[in-house]
Amino acid sequence: MSRTFAYCRVSTSDQTTANQTQEIRSAGFAIDDNRVIEETVSGSVAAMERKGFVRLVDRLESGDVLIVTKLDRLGRNAMDVRATVERLEGSGVRVHCLALGGVDLTSPAGKMTMGVIAAVAEFERDLLIERTHAGLERAKREGKTLGRTPALNPTQKQEALQKLAEGVPVAQVARDFKTSRTTIVRLRDKTI
To answer: pLDDT at position 192, please?
Structure first.
C-alpha cells in the first residue's frame, strides 16, 4: 500500500511551512502529520545534504508518493532537483509537484517537464556566465582593479616592511596597521 509524504521547506527561521502544508491538503492529499517533513534550510544546500530530507528518504519505500508545492522546495539548482527526482524514482517513489499541475515528475510527461526545466536552467546559467565574463572584460578594459581592495596601500606596505626590517614582531606590525598577521607575513614573504 502506497503512503503519501509531504516535504515542506523554508529558507529562514522567520518563515513558516504552514502555507505549503495547507496547499498540499487543499489539493486533496490526505497526509498524516507524521508524514509531513518540515525543514528550515537554504535551497542552495543540496537535497541529500539536508538532515530532514535525508531522514525522509530513509523512510520512503517503493510505491510511496512525495508531494512538494514547488520544484524549488527540492532545490534551486535544476541539476540537483533532477538528480533527486531520479534517485527517488530509482527507489520506486513518485514525486508530484503541485505548481506543475500536480504532475508526477517520474512519469513520461513529468520527465519531459524536468528536461525542459533543466535545459532552461542550463541556458540561464550559461547566459549568466557569459554576462559575468563580458562585465569583467569591460572592467579590465576600463582599467578598473578587480578583486578585494588591498589591506595596505603602497605607503603602508613600505612602512610595514621598514618596521619588520627594524625587528618589530609581525604581530605588532599587524596591530599597528590594523590588519591580520597573514597580511604582514605575505608582504614580508613577497619581498624575501
So the answer is: 65
The residues, any chain, with a CB within 8 Å of residue 172's CB and separated by 6 or more, are 163
Q: What is the CA radius of gyration of the chain?
A: 26
pLDDT in tens, 81-129: 888 988 999 999 999 999 888 888 888 888 888 788 777 777 877 888 8
pLDDT of the residue at 184: 93
Q: Clarify whether residues 180 and 85 are in a common domain.
A: no
Q: Which range of residues forms the domain containing residue 186?
A: 154-191
* Contacts (Cβ under 8 Å, ≥6 apart) of 159: 177
- What's the whole-model pTM score? 0.63
Nearest alpha-carbon partner for 93 in 58, 44, 132: 58
Which of these is catalytic: 11, 13, 91, 180? 11
* CB of 76 closer than 8 Å to CB of 61: no
Which three cell numbers mark 24? Answer: 498540499
Q: Which of 117, 137, 162 is the last residue of a domain?
A: 117
Domain boundary among 72, 101, 117: 117
Would 138 be classed as within a structural domain? no
Active site includes 11? yes
Number of compact structural domains in the chain = 2
Q: What percent of the chain has pLDDT over 70?
A: 99
